[in-house]
Amino acid sequence: MALPGALSALSLGSILPEKLKKAKIEVLNESWSKKEEVEVLFNPAQYALTDSAKYREVGNQQLDSPIISYVGGAASTLSMELFFDTSPVLTTTILTSTKATDVSKKVKKFTDLVYIKKELHAPAKVKFVWGSLSFLGVVTKVQSTYTKFTEAGMPIQARVQVEFMSVPDKNQKRKAPFESPDRTKCRVVREDWTIWDIARSEYGDPAKWKLIAQANGISNPLAIAPGTALKVPAL
User: Fold this and answer.
1) Could you give the residue ranges of the DSSP H alpha helices within 89-193?
2) Pick from 235, 178, 219, 191: which is nearest to 60 by CA?
3) DSSP 152
4) What is the Cα 90 distance to its own chain's centre?
5) In 8, 150, 220, 235, which residue has its Cα 20 to 30 A from 190's Cα atom?
6) Terminal C-alpha separation, the chain
7) Which residues contact 75 (CB under 8 A, 6 or more apart)?
8) Strand partners, 47
9) 3-class secondary structure, 181
């Protein structure tokens, strides 16, 4: 029987649920290509992405509060809980159950990602892929909680907390590269800026503050008064 106009094949396709996409963890090799996959039995119910930045408190005797100096960006993190179940499953065709298996064997594939790989001399880099999320990083923590067992004590259910930390893609160029000065400049110290901030702004590296200090005969970088004009030498 033909579908009514309101439920044509085109309109029916728009109301049917989207095809289920399984989350996966790709283990990468030295060239950052996919080497293998670690099976995720069930998609996570939720995940958390965290982005942050690093700041340093610089004390100043002339101020009641410290000056907050930006140090640099911090690695993004991804965390989630994954569920594993290897309980017997009823097969409806012949009304029998499959045999239960040890769930810790599947969990071990995740815990192995924390440890050093001999060929890499470091833990493997991984990519967590699910829907629009593609997170490149390393596994920093795996916490396993076993929640169900057979009468013989074999674990068959587990909840696993997994945490990832991002790593920069070696093939991705910096979006906003710093421009180092090719000639000597002059910068005036503001109340909310330190010599470290000037070094970061001009050189892209706050650790190069010593170059500015040497060029201006500064022995104590914390004693620079606001309004002081500093020479910023060329690299």
Assistant:
1) 104-111
2) 191
3) T
4) 39
5) 235
6) 79
7) 137, 165, 166, 167
8) 80
9) coil
Dihedral sign, Cα of residue 180, residue 59, residue 51, residue 144: positive
The per-residue pLDDT for range 31-84, each reduced to its tens digit, is 778 889 988 889 999 999 999 888 877 776 666 777 777 777 788 999 999 999
Domains and CATH numbers, the chain: 21-166 (2.40.30.200), 185-232 (3.10.350.10)
Let me know if 199 is exposed, middle or buried by CB neighbors in 10 A (0-12, 13-18, 19+): buried
Of 179, 227, 177, 229, nearest to 202 by C-alpha is 179
Structure tokens, 70: 């930006």
Q: What is the DSSP letter of 118?
A: T
Residue type, 110: F
Helix (H, G, I), strand (E, B) or coil at 68: strand
Task: Find tokens 């093939």 and name the residue.
Answer: 171
Task: Strands of 119-233 (E only): list them.
Answer: 126-130, 133-149, 155-166, 185-188, 229-232
> Which pair of structure tokens corresponds to residue 183?
């000639």
Flag whether the pTM goes above 0.85: no
d(CA 141, CA 187): 44
Q: Are 206 and 200 in contact (CB under 8 A)?
A: yes
What are the helix (H) ranges across the chain? 9-15, 104-111, 195-203, 209-215
